[in-house]
Amino acid sequence: MVRRAAARLDRDAELLAFHAAAIALARGARASPYAAWQALCTRLRRCGFNAVCLTPPWQCRDDIQGAPADVDHADARWGGGAMDATLARLAREAAAQGLTLLLDLEPDRVARDAAPRTAQAQWLESPADEPAGDPRQPAARHGVRYVRGRPAPAAFLQAWQSRLAGWLDAGVAGFRCTAPQRLDPSDWRALFEPLRASRPALRLLAWTAGLTPAQSAALAGAGFDGVFGSIPWWSPDAAWLDAESQRLREIAPLLAAPLAPAGGAPLAPASAAAHAALRALWVAALWGDGLLVGSELQRMMPAVARALRWRRQAAPRGRPVLLCGRDGWATLIIRPGPPGTSHVLALDPQAAHEPRVDWSAGAALLPAGVPRHLADPVEHCALYRVAAERPVRATAGALLPGPPSACDRDARVVFEHVAPSVAHGSLAAKALAHVPVEVGVDLISDGHEQLAGELQWRAVDQAGWHGVPLAPGDNDRWHARFAPRRVGLHEFRVCAWRDTWLTFCRELRLKHEADQDIALDLAEGAAHLRAALARRQARGDARRAPIEAALSMLNGGPAPADAVAALLRDGLAQAMRALAARPFMHTSASRPLWVDRAAAGHGSWYELFPRSQAVPAGAHGTFDDVIARLPALRAMGFDVLYLPPIHPIGQSQRKGRNNALQAAADDPGSPYAIGSPDGGHDAIHPQLGTRADFARLVQAAAAHGMEVALDFAIQCSPDHPWLQRHPDWFEHRADGSIRHAENPPKRYEDIVNVSFYDQASGRPRRALWRALRDVLLYWIDAGVRIFRVDNPHTKPLPFWQWLIADVHARHPDVVFLSEAFTRPRMMYRLAKLGFTQSYTYFTWRNTRHELDSYLRELSRPPVCEWFRPNFFVNTPDINPYFLQASGRAGFLIRAALATAGSGLWGMYSGFELCEAQPVPGKEEYLDSEKYQLRQRDWHAPGNVTAEIAALNRIRRANPALHSHLGYVPLQCANEQVLTFCKATPNRASVVLVAISLDPWAPQSVRVALPRWLFGLDDSADLHGEDLLDGARASWREAALDLELTPQRPYRLWRLWSRPLSS
User: Fold this and answer.
1) CATH number assigned to the domain comprising residue 194
2) Where does alpha-maltose 1-phosphate bind (predicted)?
3) Do 488 and 630 have their domain in common?
4) Cβ count near 825 (within 10 Å)
5) Which of 184, 447, 494, 986 has its CA 20 to 30 A from that of 172?
């Protein structure tokens, strides 16, 4: 198994190198002599290509492009000799320039008068099937014939297999099959598998651009190393490219071509078509795993070379994500590069303006760092690179709360209700890199003087502060926002002062409007200007210029109206804000803000037991078995693989099946009974594999765009090594025996709990605390950055506060998920103390009122300032009553609620198979995987795998669904339907959601269309796209009438206010 996994990784590495290729398509090369071929190869290599794909130079009629009359002999313009010899010469000359030679291949299509060796009559379609008399067919169709039958005749395949073997021996490296849908997948396998067995370097590409989903899906397993997407027909306002690419990448790595290979004339460099082609070239360069460029761009080779050079240097890898722009915002293509980097291509959807980028839209997909503008490679297109910056470094003490600071009693400007603020500023609020933090404060002062204020913020390892002006709102509430770019501890504060210049300007305007004498006021204004200049003597300060100009104007004795107009200009106000004095300025105490990386706020979690992943019945699974499942998990759209404890399991008092007190000899026990003679929390269960095997799993998961999360369960089996080494870490009963874990009347016979405090002195057992911290540090060194913490509410709060602060001081990027199914105040307190995410009560919220109330609570202050919900639809411990009785529709309903309701959601394996068999009368699974191996048929009928994949795809493509924030309830009369919108603050992404809560019967509902979200009046058009089927609509009516059924219990639309170009 290890050798097979290693072989897979080696082949993946080879394919990665191959698909980094930049392939030039030389469709017209057959009309060129060898000298021109040599010159072409030289130009291609200088441009940056490393492969050339050639239309085969066989004999064919000029009026029938590509269909051979004699497949075994070269065209007369290439000397007319044997194809093997011709190809050998072409391959040698290409190789001399460092180019790999590929050939276009369409073996089932031949000229009507083809030589018998090219196509025997019995292989071809019968005359009755030919289109000779059909005027609807193009004229060229009348001159060709196709191989009949699916599967194709065996003799046809054998003949082509022999022919291709000769071409490969002549130096051809592979083929681009231009019409792969016309042959049966079994034909492709029969044709190429024997060739690949003796020539493992053979590479096969399938031109799948423009094929239907069914045609493409049929090619899975046909043996192709690469497929092509439909970028040539894509526009930047269309979301289908992402869905198509995900489908195709399940078949093979995806190559991209900016234009459909049509063999047309080269594009004129200054034409609109050329600009569109260059934009498509940059899209293809970032989107594809490899690049195919046709001869249409040969007159723009410097621009092509620039794109190829960037691609080599940037090394994009991983799966790209498309965020379609709406209402003036740019479409973003985001793709990871080398570790810690991402590349972003921004395109104006209308191709009319420079792209306007909303960086918060991509926050869930980007590393924490400042976006760097690299270039504008073509009109209406911008290229960026975001590289992870060094996390904020702070001591553990800096992460612990300090006493709240009282407002200075002598201040004339007073602050109240500063937000976000947790525990009066003694604990850190939460934020995500790139996501703006909205800060609000009440500013109160005596008199009629105008106030001004500033929000100041910094990372705690920085000396200077960044500043942004506070803007006044209603009722003395002021606001400002900033977007942190680094992970770790930040702080912010507000300062405010009585603004003398603003007060002067207000009074001057009012007096002038009342037609009062303002001569003395103008003199006072000049005095203010002179005082500001005196404060900044530096002549090179550009901010002095507006002040000097205004003062010069006043000295000239202008008319009062002209003077007032000049003194009230915005430019002068900005200069005075920067240079004028700030009397009675008061600064608040700093408040802490913890900034997390993207995975803290957006992720799709999949939980599985590694020991159940083996294919043979009854076999114990290994990490290599988990690696084998990664492609399927990624295909469903999951990015976090969560593993319950992987440590050795104790033998003493081991639990049997269904939590039986007596275990059979072959019962594996509960993985939560941690510890045996093989080791404790820093060891791996021997049957799962080794530390090297686990490292390979972490590496393989990362290659699939996933992170591994581990369970941190602080309990021990009676066989744990700590019981022998540190018996004082455990509680003992009156008879001297170890106290087992209990939650009366429940008793957990197979585990014991540690004791965090000395019972006699009440002091913390610091050695135990450090040992538990070191367990986390051990797995962090093994590549784990996410921990799901088991039952944290049963451990001391001071311990968690210390532990999380200590770990974050060393590794600010670590994520902690709290499994605190407990009372709300305890759940929230754990979040305030530092837990990144938390399980929630979502699992038990089923009615419209329950769900709506809970979503409101979670998405609004103060809860949203420090609590991030992770909506798990089930767990190994919880088989919800709703799912036990709802059938397949219930699983669809809960999946839709979780994926649309929160930026974080999770499921335990088996949910996709609609598993719900309970222990009678309990929320527990019968034959629970906690106590036995459970092997499954992942393709069992009735599964919801495709629906989960679609929901995860929709989540990624719509920033409004990246978070639990932005929940906007919509009124509807049907209590069996939940309707709401999710919206980003700037309304760049708005999704309307309607979910039936009834798994048994159809439900009709009228949903009010939320024009007010966009500032539209009731008569304005509102536009939408159905995110399930891609249909677009424009609405003038006030409401949308829907029918939801158990087969399709949810609908989702992307909404926008401005019409699109397409």
Assistant:
1) 3.20.20.80
2) 655, 715, 750, 791, 930-931
3) no
4) 8
5) 184
Radius of gyration of the chain (CA): 34
Half-sphere exposure of 198 toward its Cβ, with a 13 Å CA cutoff? 11
Considering the domain architecture, whether residues 1046 and 920 belong to the same structural domain is answered as: no
750 is an annotated ligand-binding site residue: yes
Total residue length of the chain: 1062
Question: Do 943 and 1050 belong to one domain?
Answer: no
Tell me which residue of 1006, 995, 982, 971 sits closest to 1048, measured CA to CA.
Answer: 995
953 and 1011 belong to one structural domain: no
Query: Domain ends where: 912, 941, 960?
Result: 960
Sequence-distant (6+) residues with CB within 8 A of 54 are 26, 29, 30, 90, 101, 102, 103, 104
How many whole angstroms separate alpha carbon 189 and alpha carbon 157? Answer: 10
Q: Is 791 annotated as a binding residue?
A: yes
Active-site residue list:
790, 819
Whole-number Å distance between alpha carbons of 313 and 341 = 13
Q: Give the chain's domain count.
A: 5
Structure tokens at 701: 């998961």
838 and 950 part of one domain? yes
Chain centre to alpha carbon of residue 958: 10
Tens of pLDDT, residues 216-239: 999 999 999 999 999 999 999 899
3-state secondary structure of 253: coil
CATH number of residue 438's parent domain: 2.60.40.10
Expressed as residue numbers, the domain containing 533 is 500-581
Instruction: Write the burial class of residue 106 (CB in 10 Å: 0-12 exposed, 13-18 middle, 19+ buried).
Output: buried
Closest of 445, 436, 514 to residue 480, by C-alpha? 436
Sequence-ordered list of residues with C-beta below 8 angstroms from that of 242, at least 6 positions apart, any chain: 321, 322, 953, 956, 957
Residue 930 assigned ligand-binding role: yes
Which of 960, 995, 1024 is the endpoint of a domain?
960
Summarised one tens digit per residue, pLDDT across range 954-1012 is: 999 999 999 999 999 998 999 999 999 999 999 999 999 999 999 999 999 999 999 99
715 is in an annotated binding site: yes
570 and 640 part of one domain: no
746 labeled part of a ligand binding site: no
Q: What is the CATH number of the domain that holds 520?
A: 1.20.58
pLDDT digits (tens, 9 = 90+) for 623-653: 999 999 999 999 999 999 999 999 999 999 9
User: How does strand 488-498 pair with strand 451-459?
Assistant: antiparallel
Helix (H) or strand (E) holding 432: strand 429-432
Question: pTM, whole model, 2 decimals?
Answer: 0.91
